Structures are given as structure tokens and as C-alpha cells.
Amino acid sequence: MKPLKILFADDDLKYSLLLKRFLEQEGYEVTYVGNGRMAVEQFPLVRPDLVLLDINMPGLNGFEVAARIREADKHVLIFFLSDRSDKADRLQGFSLRANDYLAKPFYPEELIARIRERFALQLEETVEEETYRFGNTVFSYNTNELRTASSKVLITSRQADILRLLALNVNQAVSRDRLLEAVWGAASYANSLALNVQITYLRKALKNDPLVKIESLMKKGYVLRG
């Protein structure tokens, strides 16, 4: 069995190297970085099973890193390890779909126990694959993949959420407000601009299938044709 891969981001070098060594002695493969920006850069290269994040880091803080990672991956485990232990910080962490939040100081053995528990639960859970077919394209919501006979394209989690709602209503109009509420939680001006950008990216991702297109409907929203 391959060792589980961990991406660990914390700007406290001495503490981090000690914890990294402890995790490696337990059989984990650990990539350590000293700031949030490096964590974002390394994430697609490492493809970790678990991300450990401090919050107070230079460049990007742990919350910002978690938000970016969740854009790309809905399923990877994320643990916050922080000396910020108040209720507001914990709630913010879990609002970003973190899987755990440990307040420093903690015993390394406690972290190991929580990692083992989370991976045991993950192995027990059977995730039913959610797929949609339109035109010559197969869309896997679980993996964010668009597949045709000759191509495979990965899209972000945000784009997958948008496409899922359109695919559930293929050849039917879906209003902008419904998309904004479902994907961003609110129909604000800033979110509306973000939706425009994500629709543009989705159109590019779907260009390999001439039978599929996303149409804009004046004052009605969008429709997925396929």
C-alpha cells in the first residue's frame, strides 16, 4: 500500500520540522512548505491525501489557502492546526469545509489518532458516482472531469457546481439568481461577475464537443444544450 501523502504548511520552521519528522516516522509521506502561497503552488504537484494548514502565515493565510484548495478539490481532507482557538476561527474553518481543527498546543499522538479516524471513515464511506451525459460528453461531478471519446478535461469545483445545476436541467433555462444562490450562496454584484467568468471557462472546457454549448438567455439565465 502506498503511504498517504500530506501537504503541511506552517511558518514556524522549528516546530514544523519536528512534527514532519513525527509524521514520517508514522509512515506518512510529508511535503512541508513555509507559507500559504507555496502551499497553493504545491497542491496540484503533490496531489496530497491530507492538507495540514496553520492559519497565521505570510502571503496567504490558512483560510485563504483552504478556499483555493476547495475550488480545485472537493474531497481532499483539510485539517487546521492553529493557536487561534476561539469560536469564530473554528466556525470559519468549518465553513470552508475543513474536516478538523486542532488548537495548538496539541499532542502529536492526538493528530495521528484523528488522521487515522478520518481515513478510516473515508474508507468506509461509499461515494456513489454522480455522472451526467449530454451530447458526446460524460461529466463526472465526483472527479470534476469532462470526458469525450478523444479528450479529458478537468474543471474546478466551482465550475463543476455550476455545470451540475445546468446538467440537471439540460435544455431548460436556469436563472442567474438560482445559480448564484446555489453556488455562491448569494446573488450579489461581485458574485454575478464571477459567474460570468466561470461560464466563459466552462465554454472553453466544453469546446471539444460540438454538440454541447451553454447559451445565454436574455434576462433568463443560461441553458445547457446537448
From TrEMBL:
<protein>
    <submittedName>
        <fullName>Response regulator transcription factor</fullName>
    </submittedName>
</protein>
<keyword id="KW-0902">Two-component regulatory system</keyword>
<dbReference type="GO" id="GO:0006355">
    <property type="term" value="P:regulation of DNA-templated transcription"/>
</dbReference>
<dbReference type="InterPro" id="IPR001789">
    <property type="entry name" value="Sig_transdc_resp-reg_receiver"/>
</dbReference>
<dbReference type="GO" id="GO:0005829">
    <property type="term" value="C:cytosol"/>
</dbReference>
<feature type="modified residue" description="4-aspartylphosphate">
    <location>
        <position position="54"/>
    </location>
</feature>
<keyword id="KW-0238">DNA-binding</keyword>
<keyword id="KW-0597">Phosphoprotein</keyword>
<feature type="domain" description="OmpR/PhoB-type">
    <location>
        <begin position="129"/>
        <end position="226"/>
    </location>
</feature>
<dbReference type="Pfam" id="PF00486">
    <property type="entry name" value="Trans_reg_C"/>
</dbReference>
<feature type="DNA-binding region" description="OmpR/PhoB-type">
    <location>
        <begin position="129"/>
        <end position="226"/>
    </location>
</feature>
<dbReference type="Pfam" id="PF00072">
    <property type="entry name" value="Response_reg"/>
</dbReference>
<feature type="domain" description="Response regulatory">
    <location>
        <begin position="5"/>
        <end position="119"/>
    </location>
</feature>
<dbReference type="GO" id="GO:0000156">
    <property type="term" value="F:phosphorelay response regulator activity"/>
</dbReference>
<dbReference type="InterPro" id="IPR001867">
    <property type="entry name" value="OmpR/PhoB-type_DNA-bd"/>
</dbReference>
<dbReference type="GO" id="GO:0032993">
    <property type="term" value="C:protein-DNA complex"/>
</dbReference>
<dbReference type="GO" id="GO:0000976">
    <property type="term" value="F:transcription cis-regulatory region binding"/>
</dbReference>
<dbReference type="InterPro" id="IPR036388">
    <property type="entry name" value="WH-like_DNA-bd_sf"/>
</dbReference>
<dbReference type="InterPro" id="IPR011006">
    <property type="entry name" value="CheY-like_superfamily"/>
</dbReference>
<dbReference type="InterPro" id="IPR039420">
    <property type="entry name" value="WalR-like"/>
</dbReference>
